[in-house]
Amino acid sequence: QVQLVESGGGLVQPGGSxxxxxxxSGSIFRINAMGWYRQAxxxxxxxxxxxxSGGNPYYADSVKGRFTISRDNAKxxxxxxxxxxxxxxxxxxxxxxxxxxxxxxxxxYWGQGTQVTVSS
Length: 120
Known about the structure:
Layout: E1 2-7, E2 10-12, E3 18-26, E4 28-39, E5 46-51, E6 57-59, E7 67-72, E8 77-82, E9 91-101, E10 106-110, E11 114-118
Parallel strand pairs: 2-11
Antiparallel strand pairs: 1-3, 3-8, 4-5, 4-9, 5-6, 7-8, 9-10, 9-11
């Protein structure tokens, strides 16, 4: 089994910054792509940013230039630096990882989610 644990959410004023972290643990052979999704009330879960095992990032248009995704393969971790936050960024943010386990099965895992609220 593989677990993803997120941290770093909270309440921030518009224009502020937050850094989300996600650490994977368990029966990991290799972590492939990792990413962050978010889900606001009454909305579908949407992709925010994703990063390949080689470090190539992808961003949703709504966060380009404001958010930066990075990863530390030695720590099985992915991060999301969020700057210039807007009220529209308010959502539960979920970590996501495509993991090949020690049994060589490849599955997608999700974290439990962390709340980000942007409000004055």
